[in-house]
TrEMBL record:
The lineage of its organism: Eukaryota, Viridiplantae, Streptophyta, Embryophyta, Tracheophyta. Signal peptide: none annotated. It catalyses: a cytidine in 25S rRNA + S-adenosyl-L-methionine = a 5-methylcytidine in 25S rRNA + S-adenosyl-L-homocysteine + H(+). Residues 2-290 form the SAM-dependent MTase RsmB/NOP-type domain. The keyword Transferase applies. The active site is at C224. Keywords: Methyltransferase, RNA-binding, S-adenosyl-L-methionine, Transferase. One of its GO terms (molecular function) is RNA methyltransferase activity. It comes from the Eukaryota. One of its GO terms (biological process) is rRNA base methylation. It comes from Ziziphus jujuba. S-adenosyl-L-methionine binds at C91, S92, A93, P94, G95, N96, K97, E115, D142, D162. GO terms for cellular component: nucleolus. This is 25S rRNA (Cytosine-C(5))-methyltransferase NSUN5 isoform X1.
Amino acid sequence: SLYETPGVSKPRYVRVNTLKVDVESAVLELEKQYMVQKDDLVPDLLVLPPGSDLHDHHLVMNGSIFMQGKASSMVAAALSPKPGWEVLDACSAPGNKTVQLAAIMRGKGKILACELNKERVKRLKDTIRLSGASNIQVLHGDFLKLSSVDPSYSKVRAILLDPSCSGSGTASVRLDHLLPSYASGHSANAADEERLKKLAAFQRKALEHALSFPGVQRIVYSTCSVHQIENEDVVQSVLPLAASYGFHLETPFPQWQRRGLPVFDGSENLLRTDPVEDKEGFFIALFVRKISDTIQDS
Ligand code: SAM
């Protein structure tokens, strides 16, 4: 496929699960077999040579390291919840970002991991078990139906919203199929267009819902899609509502070059990764508002 161009090999990334092992120990162990570097941007992320096969490495099997791409690892890092916070992962299975949040929070505080799909709840629980995290509560249900005024969520300070998307930034087969649309700006066919519209409508609803939680200070909206309709357009459509709640866009990883498509004022705050150059096509938006800590901590 076009995205597996011979000769253009990409490094492998693994994220150290600092709930189980510290970065230095993981590096020492991996260095027995591989050249290992620390990623220059994402904390606890290690870079290994292209082609390194870690699937049955004992550190993977016992949950000390997770095979997670760089772009994917940037999402929870962009939210950067503090230890002790209460965080809601709105669409959480299979849970890679959920357990990354737990590691970022050093196991302190509370994570609510919501997931609608029953089969995927099982995978979420497996991931949580493997990670060793003990502060994650699984909510099997529809994020849209969690009442934001329910006192059980009044302490939620951060929301990670990584909703269902077309996957056009990661699935190489599907990406090839959609390439004409991605490259030309025109959809490949009416069915694809219809599907994208439905996804975007859900994504917008979910983001609007996330914005309505009264105690929330930070929201990350992310997709693994390359399509503007699921990314910049969704963010732009909620901006007036976000502003009415006191949120503004901030710039995750300011040193990162590739930003949002220049389709509205402020889209330079958004972050994109490229499916070819960066191996995965991700999109990240970070909404922030200040809430008086005296209200929050009382
Ligand atoms: N954040 C996850 C990770 O890093 O492992 C990946 C999340 S995946 C892109 C989106 C998930 O949202 C799917 O598992 C899907 O079943 C779930 N989902 C879709 N609609 C939902 C809803 N209304 N409420 C909760 N979860 C939902």
